[in-house]
Amino acid sequence: MTAANRISYSIALALLAVYFPWGGTYLAMKFAVETFPPFLLAGIRFVIAGSLLYLWEIFKGTRAPAITHWRNAAIAGGLMLLGGNSLVAWAEQTVSSGIAALIVGTVPLWMTAMAWLWQKETKPSKRILLGLLLGFSGQILLVSHSLQEASYSAAQAWGCLILTAAAFFWAAGSLYSRQAWLPQSAIMSIALQNLMGGALCLLVGVVTGELGQFDLQQVSARSLWSLTYLIFIGSIVGFSAYIWVLRKAKPAIVSTYAYVNPVVAVFLGWLLADEQLTLQTVLAAIIILLSVVLITRTPAPRKTVQTVICNQQQFSGLDGEGI
């Protein structure tokens, strides 16, 4: 098997780890916020996940990060975990999950546009643009019932604006993470982003008064199990796979998770939470999955494959700190 083929298979496996664990986090977060405030929930989740990964790397003998690494991790983690993940949880207090899924579904469009205009990557091909638009159309079909029933208030309007900002921040943080000077060890890099992003979430939770509203005795067993899932499956498995694949694949391919996750979430909601599953939902899921196939099966230019191979050599390192 050639180096390019090995990388392609690794990317495919990493994408599957992002698609399905993160799809499950929608339901896990729904159960967790029943008894956890949203910013404190995110902070606890990411700080614990980051601490476990950090201790693992130190135990392995990975060198301690430099101050610049911590700073860059704070920027990336702040954009993605505070500006992206936590803002979505906050906005869903006033906006329906259907509208939230639609707005968050714009992440692939943001990432593709910013990678082209900001990071000067190759202009997206017509096939990729078609796949992005097809996936977004599937998102609209998936949540159109919610859109028809929504009655907008000032709070809901603000929620939609916050969700738009969250999609933008997540895309910006993802692209920043690809090029920022972070630890050579991918796991240490992920640990720092979790730690710094989680610390910022906790800080916001304290500033907004969530700590005073939180009653540990009222936390349900379902919320605790959901938090456990979010830490180990959502953050350690899903987020780790996401950060790794960001270094290896084009943004348009990586961002397809934003189309697949809601589909997974809908079926899990139907299976585990007695949520309605309609023919319209199934049709939307098929359209979304077709868009993912269209994007991921687009041939990459030769220079892109060469760059990926060089990147893998760079991140493997010469000091035993590779992935």
Helices, by number, come to 14
Strand content: under 5%
Structural class computed from helices and strand pairing: mainly alpha
Unreliable parts = 302-323
List the helices and strands in order. Answer: HHHHHHHHHHHHHH
Question: In total, how many beta strands?
Answer: 0
Helix content: over 70%
Measure the end-to-end span.
Answer: 20 Å
What does this structure look like?
With 323 residues, this protein is mainly alpha-helical. The protein has one domain. Helices cover 78% and strands 0% of the residues. The chain has 14 helices and no strands. The protein has helices at residues 3-32, 38-60, 67-91, 97-104, 107-117, 126-149, 154-179, 186-207, 210-213, 221-246, 251-254, 257-272, 279-296, 302-316. The longest helix is centred in the N-terminal third of the chain and has 30 residues, at 3-32. The two termini are 20 Å apart.
